[in-house]
Specification:
Chain lengths: ~270, ~325
């Protein structure tokens, strides 16, 4: 087990060094949530006119449109990056020629994938603290202490996202270029997960899809903590669902990864890109 | 059981060809019924042209590719059933310089792979120091690999293969693209490893390298091993020398060399090279002809066949085909 943890640490540090030495990708995490929020605020004002804020409050129960959007956008962007970046890391290794080297060593692939995930977790957490923390400090200083419990929930919510990330990385092993698919899925998630609006305004049948993905629960819990000042323990229902999804998606992702890895060993796909 | 045993290993790749409307499957035999074994302190050289199946064979042995049929054992562990144990006992250097992380330093690369090979942390630092020193990279250990020369990258890749001090080593073209000095270093290290009792498989395009390093040579062509023996034994198989080299003066007087059995003639300065099917049979007739034309012969050589001659004899292809 200690050996496996050393593998996890080595993979995580290696990926973090790559982030540090290719800094432009990291900046994306910190800037895009603000840009999206600005875009949506402008569109909302344009459509809703002078009553836009009142309409928004009536539908969401939240007065602070900016904070509502930045929270949703930040989580969606983080989820996008986690889902795609675990696969992207593997894709980059495929192209650079280092992927094969990681299959030559006697490691448990679960810890390899987890190592990739943890590197992204640190970045995700950092971006959440910086983006949401600075937004709270700017517009609702009183709520700033709620950043800590919401970060805890974020860590929990990342587990099922890792599982989905494993699924995408297995697609990379098989399809090599699955980005059109992942972009489609990620955009779809943004529509159904209540990123910019509450899920209950969606058609009933769409809500079924919403409640089958972790994003929805994560965003919902965050908003309850930040805007309604609910305690983490009060949210046990969502928390249990997130944990269950974590287990299911992790197992699914790992099994798919192993399945496609085996296929790649049969057709020589590990060295192809 | 010998440390490396290969039994009837076969790999068939299934290719899909054609356009979107009419796809058809085609089976390609990359490796076909290959069997051999390698002992402790022995180097097996795998010789063959591009596409002969050398790399597929190496990749099957290191579990990157699953064989279609057959089996191989590394230190008694099956490559199909005990992949993790196999990997623990293998050091592998695959072709090229892309096997490294270019955005990490030389030392960081080795530290990363040391962790993945589960090296004891107390040993990791001294092992990495030792290897960096050995490969002449110590003074550039903290430079990003992207700033290394090709030779340095290949040497670092070689060091990576030695990290876990595995009993069985697979080197795929270890000196390709290297300058003569670095090639010499790698070759001498491979010999040292053999002397320490390591079991080594080496694929190469370079005849001299295979000749110099290998205790046994396997010639592989279209996925099959067509010959497997000591280099000297293989050369005996091609017992006819095919070139006659004559040094002398007066070759310019020759208008043509019209003797039965001559295939080709090269003439430069004071050296005449005559290519034939059987030089020993041709030599007396050739000398008689030359002396008759007033050529002053000062030296005659019948060069021994090289491994390349052996390869051409056995396969009808050159090694760089």
């Amino acid at each position: 087990m200690i050996r496996d943890l050393r593998v996890l640490k080595a993979v995580m540090i290696k990926d973090l060094k790559h982030y540090y030495r290719y800094p432009s990708g990291t900046l994306f995490l910190f800037i895009v949530p603000f840009l999206f929020t600005f875009l949506l605020s402008t569109m909302g004002s344009f459509v809703g006119g002078t009553l836009a804020k009142e309409y928004f409050y009536l539908r969401t129960g939240v007065e602070n449109f900016f904070l509502y959007q930045i929270l949703g956008t930040n989580i969606w962007i983080m989820a996008w990056v986690i889902l795609e970046d675990i696969g992207t890391s593997i894709r980059n290794e495929q192209i650079k020629g280092t992927l094969e080297q990681n299959f030559l060593v006697p490691i448990n692939k679960f810890f390899f994938l987890l190592g990739l995930s943890f590197a992204h977790t640190l970045l995700a957490l950092l971006s959440f603290i910086v983006v949401v923390g600075s937004s709270l400090a700017l517009v609702d200083l009183e709520s700033l202490p709620r950043l800590f419990p919401s970060s805890l929930i974020l860590l929990l919510g990342l587990i099922p996202l890792f599982g989905l990330g494993f699924v995408f990385s297995s697609l990379v092993i098989h399809l090599k270029e699955p980005y059109s698919f992942t972009h489609l899925i990620n955009t779809f998630f943004s529509v159904v997960a209540g990123t910019y609006y509450p899920v209950h305004i969606l058609p009933y049948w769409v809500q079924w899809i919403s409640y089958s993905i972790p994003h929805t629960y994560l965003i919902d819990e965050m908003r309850k903590i930040i805007f309604s000042n609910q305690l983490v323990v009060e949210l046990y229902g969502n928390t249990i669902i997130l944990l269950s999804m974590g287990i299911i998606y992790m197992i699914l992702g790992l099994r798919l990864f192993r399945f496609f890895e085996r296929r790649a060993r049969i057709n020589g796909g590990l060295s192809k890109f | 059981m010998k440390p490396l045993v290969v039994k009837e290993l076969t790999k068939i790749f299934e290719l899909r060809e054609g356009n979107i409307f009419s796809k058809r499957k085609r089976e390609i035999y990359a490796v076909r019924d290959v069997s051999f074994d390698v002992d402790n302190g022995e180097i097996l050289g795998l010789l063959g042209p591009n596409g002969a199946g050398k790399t597929t064979l190496i990749k099957m042995l290191c579990t990157l590719i699953e064989p279609t049929k057959g089996e191989a054992y590394i230190k008694g562990y099956s490559i199909t059933k005990e992949a993790q144990k196999v990997k623990q006992n293998l050091g592998v250097m695959l072709t090229g310089e892309r096997a490294l992380y270019w955005k990490l330093t030389g030392r960081e690369n080795l530290e990363y792979f040391a962790a993945l090979y589960h090296l004891d942390p107390s040993w990791t630092k001294s092992r990495i120091d030792e290897l960096l020193e050995l490969l002449g990279l110590k003074d550039r250990e903290n430079t990003l690999v992207e700033n290394y020369s090709t030779g340095m990258r290949i040497r670092l890749n070689f060091a990576k293969a030695l990290l876990n001090d595995a009993p069985v080593l697979l080197f795929d073209e270890p000196t390709m693209s290297l300058d003569p000095q670095s090639s010499r270093l790698i070759r001498s290290l491979i010999k040292e490893l053999r002397d320490k009792g390591k079991t080594i498989i080496l694929t190469t395009h370079y005849m001299e390298e295979a000749d110099q390093l290998s205790d046994k040579v396997a010639i592989i062509n279209y996925g099959r091993i067509v010959a497997l023996a000591k280099p000297s034994e293989l050369k005996v198989k091609v017992n006819k020398s095919k070139v006659i080299e004559i040094e002398g003066r007066g070759f310019e007087r020759l208008e043509e060399l019209n003797i039965k059995g001559i295939m080709k003639v090269d003439y430069k300065d004071s050296l005449l090279k005559v290519y034939t099917e059987d030089s020993r049979e041709l030599l007396p007739k050739l000398l008689e002809f030359l002396i008759g034309k007033g050529v002053q012969v000062s030296n005659i050589k019948l060069p021994e066949p090289s491994l390349e001659d052996v390869f051409i004899e056995l396969t009808g292809r050159t090694l760089r085909d």
